[in-house]
Amino acid sequence: MTDHNLAIVVLAAGQGTRMKSATPKVLHRLGGRTLLGHVLRSAESLGADLVRVVVRHERDRIVEALADHPGVVAVDQDEVPGTGRAAQAGVLSLPEDFAGDVLVLSGDVPLIEVETFQAMLDEHRRRGASATLLGAHLDEPHGYGRVIRGADGMVERIVEQKDATPDEAAVTEINPGVYVFRARDLRDALAAVGTDNAQGEMYLTDVIGIMRGAGGSIAGVTAPDAAAALGVNDRVQLAEAARILNQRVIRRWQLEGVTVQDPHTTWIDDTATLAQDVTLLPNTHVLGATTIAEGAVVGPDTSLVDTEVGRGATVRRSDATLAVIGDGATVGPWAYLRAGAELADGAKAGTFVEIKNSTVGEGSKVPHLSYVGDAEIGAGVNLGAGAITANYDDVHKHRTVIEDHVHTGSHTVMIAPVRLGAGAKTGAGAVVRKDVPAGALAMSVAPQRNLEGWVEKNRAGTAAAESAARAQGAQKATDVDEQEQDG
Ligand code: UD1
Ligand code: CA
Q1: Is the Cβ–Cβ distance between 37 and 65 less than 8 Å?
Q2: Are the CB atoms for 277 and 257 separated by under 8 Å?
Q3: How many Å lie between the centroid of ligand 2 and the Cα of residue 34?
Q4: How far apart are CA 98 and CA 322, in angstroms?
Q5: Which ligand is nearest to the CA of 107?
Q6: Cα(24)–Cα(356) distance, rounded to whole angstroms?
Q7: Taking the model in full, what pTM does it have?
Q8: Whether 315 contacts 298, CB under 8 Å
């Protein structure tokens, strides 16, 4: 779907002073994307031929972020401040003969959905308007530009908070900062915008009054949800916008058949994908490009980043980043899967287990207290409690290969590079420094020796020594009793 008569100009040159941040405002994130990313995503689905992003403050960082949006062109704003100047830079960058419509969006208004933009465009074209505004009523309009209407109910102009009289400030209809303009009318009106206002800036909002004065018509579309009009100017509004977006995303998945037990403590990025009959338990974060397949149960207290969860898998109280969890696999409680951890179908990463850059084969288990790094584990393997792959020699990382059906005794340390052949076993506490042939039992621990009476002799007077003496006295008495009975 391409709309040759549509250009989109996104204003993103402002400093965002109220964020108090080293990161430019439009690059702050919510729901898995930057503010600007959300705006561009909606813009792109409108199919405009021409998309411009106006930049100035930290322009290089914003231009770099545009790399993910092919076809979107950055336009520089000069030192004249204000949204009017920014829109002017955008509209002047369009081909001179462009006579279509311009949708002007603010890079800091991330929640307006594409359907709303489409409704504005339709209304604008149906009415042949010079400009079409989005109407929104807020109980607390402070900070926003107010829409001032005449006695006939028609929009006359927009007045900024800082320039408003008390009567104007009492108006609850606000300007969300997105507009459709007829390109030619916008060019003409911007040429007449000055900087005579409380902020000494060129206000884009002034074009409304200017167009009206020139006899142009201003159309309006009411926002289906006033909360979507929220502009992000500080961290309070950022958190509020993130909350609204999260509610929206959760609701969308609920209607697709996902059980979300506690929507208030569940966070799902807009970028994640969930299947039918997934269950999310409280305090679960599904972030980035995570995908969760049918019937999987995730949570409570779980965080998944860019992770793939298979059908029917279970992930409890765990943390996974860039991991793959196979169908029917079980993770946790308290597992930590790092980048490149891949559990095949039916595999298990149990309690206090950390796995990175390793494959765990079908049905294999790493059940308790283990570190597995840079390892290739076959199918049907069971690593006893406390298995450790010692993959790092302070200089290089090395690989451990554990073939099918290996069982290790508790507390086995595998010093990489090393290979345990198919079906091999290790004794408890083994330190495996050499390859273990298939089917062999590897033991590295010296046979146990008991030095009788060592504690009483070497630790005389300690509680341990006294306790040992008592135990031995009792043992002697029993021995004597038994001898007497025998005699
Ligand atoms: C603006 C509107 C206000 C509206 C509000 C909605 C004006 C004058 N005011 O106010 O009516 O209610 O948005 O959220 O337009 N920008 C530039 N260049 C600049 C200044 C700003 O590109 O020189 C960009 C910013 O990066 C931002 C957007 O324009 O993405 C809005 O700027 P901001 O300063 O946040 O305007 P508000 O005071 O919120
Ligand atoms: Ca703003």
Answers
A1: yes
A2: yes
A3: 15
A4: 45
A5: 1
A6: 34
A7: 0.93
A8: yes
Relative to the alpha carbon of 108, which ligand is closest?
A: 1
pLDDT in tens, 145-189: 999 999 998 999 999 999 999 999 999 999 999 999 999 999 999
> Which positions ≥6 away from 178 have C-beta within 8 Å?
103, 104, 105, 106, 109, 112, 117, 120, 134
C-alpha–C-alpha distance, residues 204 and 190, integer Å = 7
| Per-residue model confidence as pLDDT tens digits over 274-311 | 999 999 999 999 999 999 999 999 999 999 999 999 99
Residues with Cβ within 8 Å of 471's Cβ and at least 6 positions away in sequence, in order, are none
Report all structural domains of the chain as residue ranges with CATH numbers, in order of start: 3-229 (3.90.550.10), 258-442 (2.160.10.10)
Asked whether the bond before 282 is cis by omega within 30 degrees of 0, the reply is no
In one letter, which amino acid is 375? A
- What CA–CA distance (Å, rounded) separates 420 from 426? 9
Task: Return the pLDDT at 487.
Answer: 53
Q: Is 318 helix (H, G, I), strand (E, B) or coil?
A: coil
> What is the Cα 175 distance to its own chain's centre?
30
Pocket test for ligand 1, best of 52, 83, 172 (most atoms within 8 A of CB): 83
Q: How far apart are CA 215 and CA 218, in angstroms?
A: 10
Dist. CA 357 → ligand 2 center (Å): 43
Angle at alpha carbon of residue 390, lines to 384 and 392, rounded to 5°? 160
What is the C-alpha to C-alpha distance for residues 182 and 5, in angstroms, rounded to an integer?
Answer: 10
Tokens 């081909």 label which residue? 95
pLDDT digits (tens, 9 = 90+) for 17-54: 999 999 999 999 999 999 999 999 998 899 998 999 99
> Exposure of 71 by Cβ count < 10 A (0-12 exposed, 13-18 middle, 19+ buried)?
exposed
Pocket of ligand 1, beta carbon within 6 A: 11-14, 26, 54, 77, 81-83, 85-86, 106-109, 144-145, 158, 160, 174-177, 203-205, 231, 233
Distance 37 CA to ligand 1 centre (A): 17
What 3-state DSSP class applies to 421? Answer: coil
Distance (Å, rounded) from C-alpha 371 to C-alpha 357?
Answer: 11
